[in-house]
Design goal:
Layout: H1 5-18, E1 34-37, E2 40-45, E3 48-53, H2 71-74, E4 83-86, E5 110-116, E6 122-123, E7 134-140, E8 146-147, E9 159-162, E10 168-169, E11 177-179, E12 182-184, E13 189-192, H3 197-209, E14 216-218, E15 228-230, E16 232-235, E17 241-242, E18 247-250, E19 261-262, E20 265-268, E21 273-275, E22 278-279, E23 285-287, E24 296-303, E25 309-311, E26 316-319, E27 323-333, E28 338-347
Parallel strand pairs: 3-4, 4-5, 5-7, 6-8, 7-9, 8-10, 9-13, 12-16, 13-18, 20-28, 23-24
Antiparallel strand pairs: 1-2, 2-3, 11-12, 14-15, 16-17, 19-22, 21-26, 24-27, 25-26, 27-28
């Protein structure tokens, strides 16, 4: 069937990766979980893998193709990784950067967050080329403008946060699986800007999902002509075909932070301290200053009565004397939504 040719290519590429093709030797420093590969420095520290530019280089990543593997994808320490960061110093992203014929990629299991904040402007086809179980949240900022088809073919992603610069997203990304019955997604929430490529991406999927079991035509090569046909679906609780829609949140709409909250009240003894807990939507990060990530939410705290209670920049409240005060918690996305909450403080 013509409409499945492109999809089956994706399946075949993954199968090639898993088939045990001979791998070129790699110098992996398993003990330190770090090293250089060309112009890219990689380091696994705790549960975080960071890719950055080797000092004195342009920071261009290799294209690894299907017969080679990046050293970070070969590291036995990969099984400990829960977060991946591609640093702003990286100027080019390579294909098959996360693919391994040694199956170490499959040891990663579920990744909590992948942040791509680099100077590169393209995420290439098959950037993710191996069987990662899931990347729950993917944050794309920096200078990224184009996400090619099949850059993230089967990542089982739930939350996607897209920056302003992105002007092209291949429809066959951030999905769950390819199959003879089409392409599935587990996306629940996409955060982006109104009338942006992110909103168009969600509109495309929701249009297809709304059709239920009907085949849907789409523009595979981006030439403005819808000539490929595919069934889009979401798995339900039983893993069967379901068709619930994806929620889109504009970064400038107050509803974007509707799920954000802070501790409503605390009590603290004089000269003792407690910290206000701030909860943000999945994928967003609490920061004291913006880093360039579209998922940054700057959180500030202000006391209504410093004689009763003071509060630090991190939300640590210290009782000064008996009485009550209010802490105003402000949560702000850069150039976007803003929300305030109030924490009542009782000093005993």
């Amino acid at each position: 069937m013509k409409q499945m040719k492109k999809l089956l290519c994706g399946v075949l590429m993954v199968c090639m990766i898993l088939s045990g093709i001979t791998v070129a030797p790699q110098n992996v420093q398993a003990a330190t979980a770090s090293g250089n590969d060309g112009e890219i420095h990689w380091e696994i520290k705790g549960d975080t893998l960071t890719l950055s530019a080797v000092k004195g280089t342009k920071g261009e990543m290799k294209d690894y193709e299907s017969s080679t593997s990046s050293p970070w994808a070969m590291s036995p320490k990969l099984k400990d990784v829960k977060n991946i960061v591609i640093d702003k110093s990286v100027t080019k992203i390579g294909s098959f950067a996360f693919a391994s014929t040694a199956n170490t990629i499959s040891q990663m299991r579920k990744i909590d967050t992948m942040k791509i904040l680099c100077k590169a402007d393209v995420i290439p086809e098959y950037f993710i080329g191996g069987p990662i179980d899931a990347i729950n949240s993917i944050i794309i900022g920096g200078n990224i403008k184009k996400i090619e088809q099949y850059a993230f073919p089967c990542t089982n992603t739930k939350t996607l946060i897209i920056g302003k610069n992105v002007t092209q997203i291949g429809e066959m990304n951030f999905g769950a699986s390819f199959g003879v019955d089409g392409y599935a997604t587990e996306l629940k929430s996409v955060y982006g800007y109104s009338n942006s490529e992110a909103s168009e991406f969600v509109n495309f999927w929701n249009k297809g999902l709304a059709l239920g079991n009907e085949w849907f035509f789409f523009d595979e090569d981006g030439d403005g002509v819808e000539e490929e046909e595919i069934l889009l679906w979401r798995p339900n609780e039983n893993g069967e075909n379901g068709f619930s829609l994806i929620d889109f949140y504009s970064m400038t709409d107050k509803n974007c932070l509707s799920k954000a909250k802070a501790t409503s009240s605390i009590s603290v003894n004089k000269n003792k301290s407690k910290t206000i807990k701030v909860t943000l939507p999945a994928g967003f990060n609490k920061v004291t200053k913006y880093s360039g990530s579209p998922a940054d939410v700057k959180v500030t705290f202000k006391s209504s009565n410093k004689k009763v209670a003071t509060v630090s920049s991190s939300g640590k409240v210290t009782g000064k004397k008996k009485g009550t005060a209010k802490i105003i918690v402000t949560m702000q996305i850069k150039d976007g939504a803003k929300k305030t909450a109030t924490t009542k403080v009782t000093v005993k």
